[in-house]
Specification:
By secondary structure, the protein is of the alpha/beta class. About 25% of the residues lie in helices and about 20% in strands.
Length: about 220
């Protein structure tokens, strides 16, 4: 997602530090301290303008949510929604989603969401895809052993690539939809801004995958 720089973004982020972190390494293993309650932590990598994570936090007060976004203007737009919502179970993280094992402890996270990530379609950029083996290595470290990756995209190439990398990594599939918006799984679906705008132009693909089948693995 690319948007024009907003001159107000930097000051807005600075003025609302109670809802946003720009030094994530200092919170490694202590993310629960950012919230009023010690609850499961769900993370969205590439949160965009925030519609998905705000609605998730509103519908699931029993879960703490963290939204990661690198672009300053984009996260400032999302932060406006977060501040307006006044939800105690929602925080933003202004950083790159690469190497999340540097700012999350082992098995600290209960779910990771990857929504409409940049497909990086050129072969030479494959390592930048958020479902590449390098990223899966990081996710496996920070996710609890029975925790899922929830992945949505409208890009067929990225979807096929992700299914292959998940499978090659030995992951287990709990859900695989080739057309989410015309499936039984739509009832609980919360849309991103991008999804709401572009779903009419083609199918939305969704996968829920685990590194382990269950807690006993």
């Amino acid at each position: 997602m690319r948007v024009r720089n907003k001159p107000w973004a930097k000051d807005f982020i600075k003025d609302h530090s109670e809802y946003i972190v720009d030094n994530p390494e200092q919170w490694k293993g202590k993310w629960s301290n950012r919230f009023n309650k010690n609850q499961p932590i769900h993370v969205e990598i590439g949160t965009g303008k925030g519609q998905f994570i705000v609605e998730m936090a509103r519908e699931h007060p029993e879960i703490n949510f963290l939204g990661i976004e690198i672009q300053e203007t984009v996260i400032a737009i999302a932060l406006k929604k977060v501040v307006a919502s006044e939800l105690p179970n929602l925080q933003m993280v202004h950083t790159d989603g690469a190497g999340i094992d540097t700012f999350f402890d082992e098995h600290e996270i209960d779910t990771i969401y990857l929504n409409f990530s940049d497909p990086w379609p050129k072969k030479r950029h494959a390592k930048r895809r958020l479902t590449s083996p390098k990223f899966l290595d990081s996710y496996k470290k920070v996710l609890k052993k029975d925790a899922p990756i929830v992945f949505k995209t409208d890009n067929r190439g990225l979807f096929e690539y992700s299914i292959i990398t998940f499978n090659n990594y030995g992951m287990y599939f709990d859900l695989l939809s080739l057309d989410l918006h015309n499936s039984e799984y739509m009832e609980d679906n919360i849309e991103t801004e991008y999804e709401h705008k572009f779903s009419a132009k083609g199918p939305i693909y969704k996968v829920i995958a685990y590194f382990n089948k269950n807690k006993e693995d």
